Amino acid sequence: MTTLFSDDDRQRIADAIGAAEAETSGEIVPYVVLRSHAYAAVPWRGGVLGALAGLALVALARTALPNPPLGLAHDGVALLLALGCGGLGAVLAATTPPLTRWLAGAEAMAEAVHRRALQAFVEEEVFATRDRTGIVLFISLLEHRVEVLADAGIYAQVNDDVWQDVTARVRAGIESGRLADGLVEAIDRCGRLLGEHGVEARADDSDELTDRLHLRDE
Questions:
Q1: Which of 3, 126, 163, 169 is such that its CA lies 20 to 30 A from the CA of 147?
Q2: Is 214 in contact with 2 (CB distance < 8 Å)?
């Protein structure tokens, strides 16, 4: 996880947070995890699909060829092939992100990311700011999903739809391999959106939450 962001990346992100917060009373917390859930069913699904593919190969060989190679005419060999393909399918499902996402399903991933984002909100005590103006910018890399969770002081003034541009910038950064750049752009956009919607800086504002990138390997 730490190799995703250089020291320069971390400083640019911290600087972007400081600049955004200087213009508003918002407190922005970028929080990145490798994945939001283990998705225990994914290897099983991959294993079943792999085994079915192996059996389909055996059936095709027996149907199309009078003398199937590699002993595929024997049920014991067919069973071993199916087991081997099942094991390979399970490994590929667990270690190939596009396949993992496909087998996990969009609905399950959306629910897992939302739960993990809520956990991050509590872990970092984003709710503890004086005017309830904390924001978690939550990024889950495996799922390619981004959520913005705003506390009550912001939620009362900023509609959820407004954050779509922010999340789109982070997703573009993930997909292009420029996550740090996407985060910097998203943080800058957060600050401008807060200013546009009246979440203005107060004369006695203080920096209540740390201006750093939060990384978790789980």
A1: 3
A2: no
pLDDT per residue as tens digits for the range 126-155: 888 888 888 999 999 999 999 999 888 887
**Interval 61-110: pLDDT, tens:** 777 777 777 666 777 777 888 899 999 999 999 999 999 999 999 999 99
Rounded distance between C-alpha atoms, residue 65 and residue 75, angstroms:
16
Q: Indicate the domain borders of the chain.
A: 2-37+105-216, 41-104
Class of domain 2-37+105-216: alpha beta
Q: How many CB atoms lie within 10 A of CB 136?
A: 26
Residue with tokens 């390619």: 144
